């Protein structure tokens, strides 16, 4: 009973440290560093070598967290290996994977073996043990980080053959590296323990891999059964994570039983089992999207727990002695990847502009690499922690350097689609409405009435079809491009309204997002299924099928406020104003000396609405929502836009 009570205390303390560290680690993002770096740093600081919030005894008793996390990492890697998305670039993916895997593994093994006399924990090892360590370390060199790659791709909104190949190679390498690790782990253990590599041993190794694949298939079927249950998402999440942990318990049980009743050890690789199970769900069931959503929903907490525990387990005293070795190994890995990409890309038929920078997407390392390092550390406690310290130092270097290199390579190839920067306000509120119809004419007149300069862009050649001589109407070609937007002075616009078909609206919305940077884009939706596409581009979507119902609901629930917000109250209105006057920066709301009839509804900062009160201080770029008389709103507008 005392053991379980102690475990509860350690687990509770670790959970509190994890939640706090996850929050604090976000500071590293402001310095363009990956979140994993912050989590490892917090783990190191919280560990036994610094403030000891996670003592050494706690680290030993929380090993089950590693099992849960590693199972999740394998599930996440397998879920990204979706064959239908990779088939168009399959030749390049296979050859680049081959080049990266073979060259990196071969050069890494040789380099580490030759550097053995300079690595403290390898100096007194036998030659066989040094070869084993070199093989295991080189396997970790091959590993990549699918989660980091996906994060960069999503951030850049990257699309194209270079990006698709990079993602395919990343995921395929992580699948193969687990198989490679299983082989090297078995061979390395035989070398370290002095067992002879007989034919029976090789047969046993192949049999273990075959059984791992078979059990992985069964795990995939079990996961599909869990996903098919008519229950809440959190229940499915818990069952999926327990399934992964159950794989580790089963592997240990088979190992113990084989040692007790057989003359040899049977070791099935749990990472292979989990990744095959995830692969089956992703490619051979209808639950791929739901499975991915569940994994994404818990990714932050799982990675936080794993990386913080890895940081707390790190023998920080050893890092001071091995940083030169870590830097040398980091450099060797980069060189190997450059050679591997050139060879693989050339064999795959990719152009030289791809091959010359084709190594950059594969520098970053994270979950799988750390997972393999922790497995080795647990297997060989005599020197495993020192081994993990060196590997983690290399991984951290790769994690710092990798994402910026990947971003740069995407931009260099021209497959990045990031949001353009917002234009400075020129003192005139401009709006462009795409689509000529009665609604657009009415909207344009309403905006002009409130001091806006409005242009209507239409593909109709007969501009006299609707009687609107008081409006500025422009004919645009069927295919809208950047030149069309520039001719409309779109970069000067504060708002763009899209009233065309969904496909036409999306094409313009994407161009505005990438090339123009207009902050407010309003889209009238025609098909509800396209909502997410526009929402991802930051557009404000109006769905006519639900807008009237919502409006009627608001009138019933709060008729006065709704009338006010819709401008139906005489001489009353609302407005969003951006803080552009430097003299207002740092001013508290209570000190603004606004007209008596002005009420501040909200303050939005960096895209997030903040809880405001009288002592809230404004910053340049804040968006302040106000309500009041039209006359007072005009006076306040002059002050904010100054």
Give a verbal description of the structure:
The chain has 642 residues and is of the alpha/beta class. It folds into 3 domains: 311 residues, Na+/H+ antiporter like fold (Up-down Bundle), CATH 1.20.1530.20; 119 residues, NAD(P)-binding Rossmann-like Domain (Rossmann fold, 3-Layer(aba) Sandwich); 71 residues, Alpha-Beta Plaits (2-Layer Sandwich), CATH 3.30.70.1450. It has 25 helices and 10 strands. It has a 6-stranded parallel beta sheet, with helices on both faces. Strands 7-10-8-9 form a 4-stranded antiparallel beta sheet. A hairpin with a 2-residue loop joins strand 8 and strand 9. Helix 5 packs across helix 12 and helix 5 runs antiparallel to helix 14. The radius of gyration is 30 Å and the shape is elongated. The model has no long low-confidence stretch (mean pLDDT 79). This is Cation:proton antiporter. It is found in: Membrane. It is a multi-pass membrane protein.
């Amino acid at each position: 009973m005392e053991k379980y009570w102690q475990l509860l205390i350690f687990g509770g303390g670790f959970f509190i440290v994890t939640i706090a560290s996850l929050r604090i680690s976000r500071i590293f993002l402001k310095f363009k560093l990956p979140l994993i770096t912050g989590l490892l740093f917090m783990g190191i600081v919280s560990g036994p070598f610094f403030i000891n919030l996670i003592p050494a005894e706690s680290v030993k008793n929380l090993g089950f967290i590693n099992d849960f996390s590693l199972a999740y990492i394998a599930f996440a890697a397998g879920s990204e290996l979706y064959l239908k998305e990779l088939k168009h670039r399959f030749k390049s993916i296979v050859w680049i994977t081959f080049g990266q895997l073979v060259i990196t593994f071969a050069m890494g093994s040789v380099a580490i073996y030759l550097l053995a006399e300079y690595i403290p924990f390898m100096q007194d090892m036998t030659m066989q043990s040094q070869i084993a360590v070199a093989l295991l370390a080189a396997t970790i060199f091959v590993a990549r980080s699918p989660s980091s790659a996906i994060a960069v791709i999503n951030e850049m909104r990257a699309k194209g053959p270079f990006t698709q190949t990079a993602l395919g190679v990343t995921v395929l390498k992580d699948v193969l590296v687990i198989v490679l690790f299983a082989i090297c782990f078995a061979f390395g253990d035989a070398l370290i323990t002095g067992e002879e590599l007989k034919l029976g041993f090789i047969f046993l190794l192949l049999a273990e891999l075959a059984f791992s694949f078979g059990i992985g298939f069964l795990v995939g079927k079990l996961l599909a059964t869990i996903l098919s249950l008519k229950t809440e998402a959190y229940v499915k999440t818990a069952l999926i994570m327990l399934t992964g942990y159950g794989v580790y318990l089963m592997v240990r049980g088979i190992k113990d039983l084989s040692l007790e009743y057989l003359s040899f050890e049977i070791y099935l690789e749990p990472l292979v089992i989990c990744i095959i199970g995830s692969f089956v769900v992703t490619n051979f069931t209808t639950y791929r999207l739901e499975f991915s959503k569940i994994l994404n929903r818990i990714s932050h907490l799982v990675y936080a727990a794993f990386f913080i525990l890895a940081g707390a387990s790190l023998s920080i005293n050893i890092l001071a002695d091995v940083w030169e070795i870590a830097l040398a190994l980091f450099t060797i890995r980069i060189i190997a990847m450059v050679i591997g990409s050139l060879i693989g890309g050339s064999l795959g038929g990719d152009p030289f502009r791809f091959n010359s920078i084709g190594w950059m997407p594969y520098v970053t390392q994270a979950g799988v690499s750390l997972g393999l390092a922790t497995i080795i550390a647990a297997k060989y406690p005599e020197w495993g922690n020192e081994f993990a310290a060196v590997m983690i130092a290399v991984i951290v270097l790769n994690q710092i350097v990798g994402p910026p290199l990947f971003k740069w390579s995407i931009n260099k190839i021209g497959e990045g689609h990031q949001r353009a920067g917002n234009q400075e306000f020129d003192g005139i509120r401009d709006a462009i409405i795409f689509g000529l119809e009665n609604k657009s004419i009415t909207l344009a007149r309403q905006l002009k009435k409130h001091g806006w300069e409005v242009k209507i862009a239409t593909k109709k050649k007969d501009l006299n079809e609707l009687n609107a001589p008081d409006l500025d109407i422009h004919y645009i070609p069927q295919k809208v491009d950047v030149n069309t937007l520039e001719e409309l002075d779109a970069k000067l616009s504060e708002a763009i309204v899209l009233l065309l078909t969904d496909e036409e609206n999306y094409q313009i919305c994407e161009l505005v997002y990438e090339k123009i940077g207009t902050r407010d884009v309003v889209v009238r939706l025609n098909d509800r299924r396209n909502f997410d596409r526009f929402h991802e581009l930051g557009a404000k979507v109006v769905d006519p099928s639900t807008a009237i119902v919502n409006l009627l609901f608001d009138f019933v629930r709060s008729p006065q406020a709704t009338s006010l917000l819709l401008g139906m109250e005489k001489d009353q209105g609302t407005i969003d104003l951006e803080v552009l006057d430097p003299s207002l920066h740092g001013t508290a709301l209570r000190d603004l000396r606004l007209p008596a009839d002005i009420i501040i509804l909200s303050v939005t900062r960096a895209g997030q609405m903040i809880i405001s009160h009288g002592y809230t201080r404004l910053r340049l770029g804040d968006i302040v929502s106000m309500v009041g008389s039209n006359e007072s709103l005009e006076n306040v507008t002059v002050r904010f836009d100054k």
